[in-house]
Specification:
heterodimer; A: Rna Polymerase Sigma Factor, Chain: A; 2 domains; 0% strand; elongated; B: 173 residues; mainly alpha; 3 domains; 7 helices; membrane (chain B); Anti_sigma_zinc_sf (chain B); transmembrane helix (chain B); transmembrane (chain B); coiled coil (chain B)
Chain lengths: 146, 173
């Protein structure tokens, strides 16, 4: 049984668009695979997600966006990997016991790698949502010195 | 607006936006805010560079055969709309993992390459250099030991010649 939501809408891709997609794969494929593999540790499934990611990217949609290309790839890779993750419903957060020192890392891990929303993290860790965002900022800021 | 600007810049909204942690509504608000604030856009670009470096350091090269799989899918000449339910169904199938004829892309079947951790490269170079150093040192000491052996032999011969010459008394008168 097919529904409208399940329908695949065929749109022709231009040669230029195909070339751009492959260029994106060449440039960001490793980065996207690293992200996907961290979220979905099964290599076969991670490879399927990676192929899906670049096959379903829409260059035209991105061209109208102010979002940087790398951020777009990171966001899409994370989103697809989280959606493809087996057993994502029964997420266990019991192993995350943050101290003051590792709070930014724990918050980032929960938010980025485990797909928890900011409010969920705040409730779990018993901190304010602004503190969650500040922790993420602190961790991302530390990227430059890492 | 000043309060909102402070929030976005100081409270981590930019970073959350870049990493895709925010909801779709917050993302739309952020896009609107960025289009009106060049200062925030500049800050965003800075964060993006460091974030890209962070994830690039954690990059994992996909199997070489996967490139062809991506190209084949792209060459199907259609944009397939992303359907979260398709991913979820794949996730369910993966969790079961009972069917060996699964929908996985078996890209490494005809692949003659192997993939190793990136730290193998410096390790291999170090082993190669050390092997050369030991080879040169071994040859040096081998030839040096040979020459010392020859000198020792010569000295022994000289010594034995001196011992065979009869010594005459100094005052025979």
């Amino acid at each position: 049984m097919s529904t409208i939501a399940q329908a695949v809408v065929p749109l022709p891709r231009s040669e230029e668009e195909k070339r751009q997609l492959m260029a994106l794969y060449e440039q960001y494929g490793s980065m996207a695979y690293g992200i996907i593999l961290r979220i979905v540790p099964q290599p076969e499934l991670a490879q399927t997600v990676l192929v899906d990611l670049f096959a379903t990217l829409s260059i035209a949609e991105r061209a109208n966006d102010t979002e940087p290309v790398s951020a777009f790839i990171i966001r899409m890779a994370r989103r697809k990997a989280l959606a493809s993750r087996p057993g994502s419903e029964e997420r266990s957060l019991t192993s995350f016991q943050p101290t003051e020192r590792n709070l930014p890392k724990v918050v980032f891990n929960l938010a980025f790698w485990h797909g928890c929303h900011v409010t969920e993290i705040a409730a779990r860790l018993n901190i304010a949502t602004t503190d969650v965002l500040r922790a993420i900022r602190a961790y991302v800021k530390a990227f430059t010195v890492a | 607006m000043a309060t909102k600007s402070y929030q976005y810049l100081e409270e981590g909204f930019l970073e959350a936006y870049l990493t895709g942690i925010v909801s779709e509504q917050e993302r739309a608000e952020m896009k609107q805010y960025l289009s009106e604030n060049p200062e925030a856009q500049a800050e965003l670009n800075e964060v993006e560079i460091s974030m890209e470096q962070f994830f690039m350091r954690r990059a994992v090269p996909p199997p070489p055969g996967l490139r062809d799989a991506v190209m084949n899918r792209i060459n199907q000449n259609e944009i397939q709309q992303w359907r979260p339910e398709a991913d979820e169904s794949r996730a369910r199938n993966s969790a079961k993992a009972t069917n060996p004829e699964s929908q996985y892309v078996h890209v490494e079947v005809d692949d003659t390459h192997i993939r190793v951790h990136k730290y193998w490269r410096p390790a291999f170079i170090a082993v190669f250099v050390l092997s050369k150093v030991f080879l040169i040192a071994g040859l040096y000491y081998y030839f040096k030991a040979g020459s010392v052996e020859r000198e020792l032999e010569q000295l022994r011969q000289q010594n034995s010649i001196q011992q065979t010459i009869p010594t005459r008394p100094l005052n025979t008168r």
